[in-house]
Amino acid sequence: MVSLGGLARKVFGSSNDRRVKSTRPRVEAINAMENEMRALSDAELAGRTEKFRQDLADGASLDDLLVPAFATVREAARRVLGMRPFDVQLIGGMVLHNGGIAEMRTGEGKTLVATLPVYLNALAGKGVHVVTVNDYLAKRDAEWMGRVYKFLGLTVGIIVHGLSDDERREAYACDVTYATNNELGFDYLRDNMKYERSQMVQRGHSYAIVDEVDSILVDEARTPLIISGPLEDRSEMYNTIDAFMLRLGPADYEVDEKQKTTIFTEEGTEKLENMLTAAGLLKGESLYDVENVAIVHHVNNALKAHLLFQKDRDYIVRNGEIVIIDEFTGRMMPGRRYSEGLHQ
Q: HEC states along 64-99?
């Protein structure tokens, strides 16, 4: 028995089918311009960028320019990369331009699809951000697809770890900027700590395309971006409490690996209080007296470090420093630190 909704989908198609179908007239219009684009010289093709910008200045909208702009990028990609976007890629580009999510299988050319809406939106001169999951992809795509943008007269920048503020400001000033979500996020946070607008590196947020959107906006979004300030050196305290953890047994604590939490049992708390008293670190009679707040923070972090974080899985030690491993990509994240003293 077919439901009413199923019958409607068979007759009218799903909402996704209807949305894709609505792009067909524009796809046909782009295809109709192909011979015209092929007849242009390289200089004439590149010169269309200035023409489009003048059209925008005269009052045209980006939607008005979509068909000729996509036709221009298609021809540029064919000449520069030897890759001609297919009709399905044109449709994907339109979906991205309209702020939607385009799901494409591996090998269907997601990277090439992005060049279409990126070029179109970069014409406004407000900057376009292409967000990737790691530095490797940012560099690769900026160099690879950047050839198309540069052929058409656009500037291309890339944000990776280790750049100075001046280098970042220059990259953000480009028409197209490639960066990872972490670099973009931290630059935004740091800009909000600057005292003058001239010190900021980002110039605004007009249009962005997110590659691997499920990874960036769902998986990695669970990890907050936090800027930490410097703490006083308490190395001796860390080393002392770290040694105490080695003297505790399974009966002294409880671990919830799913929630990533640890707590001391009553037996463990009593044992810890005796060790702290012997070391002259405990004030008052109980570990949980108000004057021992800092000590409680240290011992809780030490227990977490020993039970929840595993070397060569969650972090590595390189040149005497702890480097965090991204749990989603398996890549090192130099410069990132665990918060609230856990890193120490």
A: HHHHHHHHHHHHHHHHHCCCCCCHHHHHHHHHHHCC
